[in-house]
Amino acid sequence: MSLTRKTAAELGALMASGEVSAVEVTQAHLDRVAEVDGQVHAFLHVAAESALAQARAVDARRAAGEELGPLAGVPIAHKDVFTTTDMPTTAGSKILEGYRPPYDATVTARLREAGLVILGKTNLDEFAMGSSTENSAYGPTRNPWDLGRIPGGSSGGSSAAVASYQAPLSTGTDTGGSIRQPAAVTGIVGMKPTYGGSSRYGLIAFASSLDTPGPFARTVLDAALLHEAFSGHDVMDTTSIHAEVPPVVEAARHGDVAGLRVGVVKEFGGEGYQPGVLARFHEAVELLESMGAKVAEISCPNFGYALPAYYLIAPSECSSNLARFDGMRYGLRAGDDGSRSAEEVMALTRAAGFGPEVKRRIMLGTYALSSGYYDAYYGSAQKVRTLIARDFEAAFHQVDVLISPTTPTTAFPIGERADDPMAMYLADLCTIPANLAGNAAISVPCGLADEDGLPVGLQIMAPVLGDDRCYRVAAAVEKAFESRWGGPLLKEAPSL
Ligand code: GLN
């Protein structure tokens, strides 16, 4: 079996036993990138030489008898919104074209410490604003299941890289759904950890109270191994949680739902959802019941207000965070011919450097925060945020996890929603509540929709710091589907 078809856990074991070297594993994945990324466009930057150098270093340490972690030598694709000193960091924006950060993000540094081999940086919607990667200044990424469709977003380069076997693992960030939604529509696993469970230091900020780094993988165990490798307290991030990383790897190894109380969110999964998505979701509910879970419908009455609240809070924070891109400090500077004032240069730089969706968000945010409107918009949205957190609290008095479809539809055609922001925003209808409340949530594949043969994701939401519960349930679902289909059906389908 080709090395690119193996899981990260399998590759780690093969390297630990000396059956293959990190250089061989890295080369196999670089070959795969060369073979398919012309069609997929998952990567903005491929760092072949530095990847091979990292792999040689892992092999040398192993040859010297060093004990290395389970992911040492495993290749990874890294979302281009984390700073990296040895590769460009663009956040998918023209305004940061060619930018080389002076420091590594904590997530980047921890990947390196774990011996992971960074293959390159992946494409994303500009500043992680979007659900399709069509908002990237560097062109869209394509879904490996159907190259005419979107791979989700904003972490669409990362989901596509893993789904097309260019890397067994990748990083993402989830502010409103940007890990779970791309995972769902490309048939892989994507986890949004508890807010503050993974560090934001060196993550280019979109909405700081929501941004959460997390893992993508083709199996639940692989996602957990990566989750563990880069999570945990960081003194450089003031919102980082002071707590042990939940036992995610242990949970992923022991998928089991016997006796578990599962709540089906009543407000999600009705009208407006694709029939094939609903059919797979209802089957997953039956599957959980057949494995011994106690399933009940749970109402979360404020979840329906999550989307509008998010589209006030996230743009408000982004309008402040993106003020730093002024042509003075980083990247692009436009119109600086010696005749213009600093203010004029800033205005020209921002006009030329930001794409239309980023400008829309900045305008929405500055409007929501402006005097006279602040209480009506931003203030109300914050109140709704509290109500949503209370819905979760009430639900978790009754059940251990909540479930829903991850997305209302499967992957849509490139271009279909590009001119309709409202339709685009609906892709995150089910994922946003967990961001607003800071909860842990995962998407795991639960089959293919009958009408288009495209992957459907099951979302499992757990309380704050209940990340291990997400993995436990996801692992049970994964195992049940594998035995039903006689193999990892979803993981073999991409047609490249
Ligand atoms: N699609 C959502 C948005 O456009 C979420 C993005 C994200 O999670 N980064 O804001």
TrEMBL record:
Reaction(s) this enzyme catalyzes, per UniProt: L-glutamyl-tRNA(Gln) + L-glutamine + ATP + H2O = L-glutaminyl-tRNA(Gln) + L-glutamate + ADP + phosphate + H(+)
GO biological process: translation
GO molecular function ontology, one term from the record: transferase activity
Residues in the signal sequence: none
Keyword line: ATP-binding, Ligase, Nucleotide-binding, Protein biosynthesis, Transferase
Catalytic activity, EC: 6.3.5.7
Alphabetized Gene3D superfamilies for the sequence: Amidase signature (AS) domain
Domain Amidase residues, every copy: 24-470
InterPro entries per the UniProt record, alphabetical: Amidase, Amidase_CS, Amidase_dom, AS_sf, GatA
Catalytic site positions: 79, 154, 178
Domain of life from the UniProt record: Bacteria
Any one Gene Ontology cellular component term annotated for this protein: glutamyl-tRNA(Gln) amidotransferase complex
Record's keyword annotation contains Ubl conjugation: no
Family: Belongs to the amidase family. GatA subfamily.
Function: Allows the formation of correctly charged Gln-tRNA(Gln) through the transamidation of misacylated Glu-tRNA(Gln) in organisms which lack glutaminyl-tRNA synthetase. The reaction takes place in the presence of glutamine and ATP through an activated gamma-phospho-Glu-tRNA(Gln).
Cited HAMAP family: GatA
Subunit description: Heterotrimer of A, B and C subunits.
Protein name: Glutamyl-tRNA(Gln) amidotransferase subunit A
Species of the source: Sphaerisporangium krabiense
